[in-house]
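so the lab meeting is tmrw and i was supposed to have these ready like two days ago... anyway. pasting both below. for each one the top line is the aa sequence and the line under it is the structure tokens. i havent really looked at them closely yet so no promises
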Amino acid sequence: MGVTEPGLFGLLLPMRRVFLGSMIGGAAGGAIALGFGAQAYALVGNSGLPGLPGLAGPAFGWTVASLAVAFVGSLVAVLLLGFDESPLTRTAAAATPAATPVAAPVDEHAAVTAEGSGPRVASPVAGTVVPLADVADPAFARGTMGKGVAVLPSDGEIVSPVSGTVVTVFGTKHVVGLRSDDGVEVLVHVGIDTVNLGGTGFTAHVADGDRVTVGQRLLTVDLPAVAATHDTTTVVVITNSTAFAGVEPVATGTVAAAAALLAVETLEHALEATR
């Protein structure tokens, strides 16, 4: 996973106003760069300040101006839009109805039913459960992206771990973000550093905004091809973990696709348990 992905998945996507503000600032800076002929004169691997020498040329002043406008414009846009729409605020409100003791319809994947503590998140793929701390990506292993678990897949069929809405399908098709009907925001990240494959070996069967149910196919992965060059460990994290009292794995060893993988305890249930 690239160094920008923790910021993208951990901040920009969950906090949509910040994402929109960043897009506005970036668009303003990009317009200046395009309008005044800013361009790169060398292929440099570094971006940001270390990459500035590669942009030196007749329009270098406008290049610097475009970067400044992008930075300041994003800041101003975020301040104007507000960034109070945090995962904690949104999900706490969305999860309130889930605490009401109303019998829910039985899902066809019975393994995902809860025992009263809160929502369950299913495994998106069949395979062997791997503790999050053992994942070969520090951003996940340290819990930076949220609490969760991983699965070393035995096949390439990636299914929805929740019933809800597809928030995003990453352009390289190795990442799917979903929001469950219970307000749980789930990130399914297939493989380690698979962003470098540019989508090769991945086929998406859903798009942003699609309605999905537990067990519905999201992606098909050419597992042998991907495994030939990359670790295929598939990470499942709750990106708004702080909106809940707890997120705990409920499966060990081998797990079937759509079988219960994580238990999520709501704040409401935790408060009731202390009374």
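ok protien two:
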Amino acid sequence: MSNEVILPLATPTARMMMMRTTTPATTVRPSDVKMAPIPTTPYLVEGTGESLCVSLYAARGLRSTVAERCLSPMTVFETAPEASHRYVLDSVRETDRDRFLAALFAPEPARRGLLALLAFDRELARTRAVTSEPMLARIRLAWWREAVMEAAASSKPRAQPVVESLGETMRRHGLAPQKLIALIDAREEEIEGLLDVTRTGNALADLQLEVLGATNEASRAAVRAVASAWLMGEGPERDALLATARARRAEIDPAALPVLLPALSIGRNLSGWRRPLAYWWAAKRGRY
């Protein structure tokens, strides 16, 4: 009977590796390795303080032990999040899974700030979908402008989860409310016409970079290019932006990597367990 190694990925409460061999201390051939059923979201660890781990094995020379590598730090929050942050986390996870996964590679508290910004951008992007008239859409965006200004001026913002998270992010990272207003203004152009992807992408990218503390020009150019490409359909302009971002790889601040990793998913179909593994491997090598 051949040796058999079972390599299941993690659940939110368990390590990602369990190993079973029929005989100990013998070499395992690649053909003997079988992958156990893969959960649909193996990378998610929700506020438990656990680290996400990936089981890695070598194609050659693998023996009865398998090296386990942890994606550290990969906890979503170190302590149980408040209701507003739970809403933000769930919202981004369900609607923007690639950028959610990429944000997990940022350290706390930057990770929390990135998720708040992504949830904010999603709320703005939904304006056309949830309103039937341009005037109603403008009223909705005006509400967000007022909410942002109030959150910047008070420690008790409006009782709306995304607004509360934005207020904390602005206070913690010193974000000027005008920079969030710039993102609202960019999204407003979408109400009666096509979205200006460059203006919108740049506005979000600048906020993300400030949260991450990555301020050099190469990082700014690369993150802006990826943020704009994210909003585009397939075409040579998008390809050129991605090429521009990748050409600056040697110059970027490593702190900017969590907002560059989504480039991996642009134009590619990374599904199931391949997505988190691809992101982890790219982050480990500093690639995107």
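from a quick look at the 2nd one: Confidence is low (pLDDT under 50) at residues 1-81. The beta strands are 5-6, 33-34, 52-55, 68-71. will dig more after coffe
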